[in-house]
Write a structure and sequence with these properties.
- About 55% of the residues lie in helices and about 0% in strands.
- By secondary structure, the chain is mostly helical.
- α2 (about 35-45) packs across α3 (about 50-55).
- The longest helix is centred in the N-terminal third of the chain and has 18 residues, at about 15-30.
- About 20% of the residues are buried.
């Protein structure tokens, strides 16, 4: 998937496109903190495969509590 500009109307994106964009952003924030997928998984209490799937845009079925835990692990709850 192409990296699209977030300034576009978010309602123009499909759910799958939004999931992919969120996963990409998550990966960017994680890497900026110098954290590995395994470290984030351990800190958040989710499996490494959950992190991998989320970052690949396959997280459209991620549970809300797992999403919150992942965001907490990279200090991005806001």
């Amino acid at each position: 998937m192409e990296n699209k500009d977030w300034d576009q109307d978010l309602y123009a994106y499909s759910n799958g496109e939004l999931a992919a964009q969120l996963g990409e952003r998550f990966r960017e924030y994680r890497r900026a903190l110098g954290l590995s997928q395994k470290q984030v998984a351990l800190q958040s209490g989710v499996s490494v495969m959950t992190v991998v799937r989320f970052e690949k845009g396959q997280g459209n079925a991620i549970r809300l509590d797992n999403l919150i835990a992942l965001l907490r692990a990279i200090q991005r709850l806001e």
